[in-house]
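Same chain as my last thread, 112 residues:
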Amino acid sequence: MSVPLYQAKAEMFRVLGHPVRIRVLELLQAGPLPVRDLLSEIEVEPSNMSQQLAVLRRAGVVVSFRDAGLVMYALSTPAVADLLAAGRRILGEVLTDRDSLLAELKAQGNPR
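reply #2:
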């Protein structure tokens, strides 16, 4: 029995719904990194990092491989970086809209 597309999309967004996972993906946009470099940039316990990387791997968002004895992680596809960029654009537009609304409210003054 196959999963409906909307359900698969919801699962993908659920996987992306964790700050550590988002930060890992942001860092991997520059290229593959070993776990130790991810840990030096993200203040979490190694066990927590391992759990978050496992979630990203199972979802197919990142891949891992060995290089000179180090476990390296990389984005599985450039589309992941595109998705992060789209998220930044959407967030920027939403925040801009909120700023505009706030400015409009302030400009109208305080009605009594």
